[in-house]
Amino acid sequence: MISVNDFKTGLTITVEHDIFTVLDFQHVKPGKGAAFVRSKLKNLRNGNTVERTFRAGENVGRAHIDNREVQFLYSGGDEFTFMDTETYDQFALTREQLKWELNFLLENMNIKILSYQGEILGINLPKSVDLKVVETEPGIKGNTAQGALKSAKVETGLSVQVPLFINEGDVLTVDTEDGRYISRAQS
Question: Which terms in the Gene Ontology molecular function aspect does this entry carry (predicted)?
Answer without folding.
Answer: translation elongation factor activity
